[in-house]
Amino acid sequence: xxxxxxxxxAFAAALLGAAIAPxxxxxxxxxxxxxxxxxxxxxxxxxxLSVLKRGGNAIDAAVTVSFALAVAHPQAGxxxxxxxxxxxEAKSGSVWTLDFREVAPAAAKRDMYLQPDGTISVNSQTGPxxxxxxxxxxxxxxxxxxxxTRPWKELVQPAIALARDGVATDARLERDLNSARSKRKxxxxxxxxxxxxxxxxxxxxxxxxLQNDLAATLTSIADSGAHEFYAGSLAGRIxxxxxxxxxxLSHRDLSEYAPTWRAPIRVTFRDCDIYMMPPPSxxxxxxxxxxxxxxxxxxxxAGFQTAKSLHLVAEAERRAYIDRNKYLGDPATAxxxxxxxxxxxxxxxxxxxxxxxxxxxxxxxxxxxxxPAVEPDHTTHFTIADAEGNVVALTTxxxxxxxxxxxxxxxxxxxxxxxxxxxxxPGKPNRYGLLQGTVNAIEPHKKMASSMSxxxxxxxxxxxxxxxxxxxxxxxxxxxxxxxxxxxxGKPLDEAIAAPRYHHQATPDQIDYESSAPRRTxxxxxxxxxxxxxRDDIGDVHALMFAAGKIIAVADPRDGGAAGGY
Length: 566
Ligand code: DON
Known about the structure:
Blueprint: H1 3-16, E1 28-32, E2 36-39, H2 42-53, H3 58-72, E3 82-89, E4 94-100, H4 136-147, H5 152-165, E5 167-168, H6 171-178, H7 180-187, H8 190-196, E6 208-209, H9 212-224, H10 226-231, H11 233-244, H12 251-256, E7 260-262, E8 265-269, E9 272-276, H13 283-294, H14 299-302, H15 307-327, H16 338-341, H17 344-352, E10 380-385, E11 391-397, E12 455-459, E13 462-467, H18 474-487, H19 493-498, E14 502-503, E15 511-514, H20 519-527, E16 532-535, E17 542-547, E18 550-555, E19 562-565
Parallel strand pairs: 15-16
Antiparallel strand pairs: 1-18, 2-10, 2-19, 3-4, 3-11, 4-7, 5-6, 8-9, 9-12, 10-11, 12-13, 13-17, 14-15, 17-18
């Protein structure tokens, strides 16, 4: 176990009063008989667990966890961002998805970040102009109205207490604040620097993060509901503060924001029905396409994490990413060919272009393009199951670490920089090196394509797995690998999550791999014609597995979150 892993596991264990990590596994794992959850923050896990123990359901706990993450995990937890929910309702045996992704403000323009010299302005990633209209508070309100059982006010309360009384900071926050990007961003905004760089230095580990403005904002939301954020006096203060700082968010943008219930993407693979997020997430279609392409290969015979099987997965990912970049955008503004992308005909056509022994250069399959790899940033996923059998998989994001870096003055919350998930300029890669089509160009009121992929797997109609991760374009491929490790290779959940990860996204034409990948496997992939590039951790999975009447909750060792249950 890494030093960071040990420190975080001990912190989580102390806070949750539980023995967390089994021997040999550096993440956090709990086996529960009634209810369980896994989140990136021990504070959020503890808050969600106490809702579950008091008889709240998985949606109640999701509301509490989301607000708690906005306080205790400011890198990605948020009320100024957006996200996606996949929800299994035990009573009806059905799966729902809620899209509370941000939308472009009415004042947004297609070329708003394009500079005269053809480069892209920093405004797509930094400051209030980078923000889409936040969807999180409306999303939590919508899921709570439909499925929640406990009073809203009670569910927001734990986050208010965390903001007011403070949370102990950890080494990860210190590291993330000290990253060059975050520093550069945060330095520009006194409202953000005052919170995270008191006396000019990043909050060190084991100090206390007090957020009084955020506590007051959350109290208004608790007392007056989501309406307060979108059309009440809070909305007025948000718009005034954002416009004063040069942003373009209007009263109308906030008051017209509405989350959308959507039909999930369902794909059958082996004996599993996999339920995923539809567009504007690319996750469901991408994972579905990869699984369809892989379906007729004997991956088990090719071996667990051998170069042979990793090559097949990477080649399928390459092809699905070519389609993603071409076809994915907001379904409200473009026809997205769901059926064609998930058809057998397409899987066969792509398979016919694959060579089991050699890499196929992306350039020979699609438009060329190549961009540098990027360091990972933040988004966060959590997973919850309650005593009634309901299951939540929820991924939420500000896009980058600390979003746009802009804390709304006086209100204490960070705004997202989700506008950078659009194609900022045709033919130019965004922050994640994704070269996307005009289908994802900026338009007022439009949603930007996303990679977030909360996923629930049913077997014989009952929950079997629930999972998701952070990681930009590596999100779908990470979910895919954990799925394959469990479903094809029969690995226990902790091993399936701990296994080294690999990633291909068509452009740049390379396999990214984690440092834990064995050298000989990487060399073998290289010998098959793949460029191979080592990078930092890929993803941070929070998953549940349902087996023999128990729920196994696992937090990925990579970020060292906390599983809980009873
Ligand atoms: O929605 C998306 O695809 C991105 N905004 C997600 C960013 C992300 O996962 C960064 N995390 N590590």
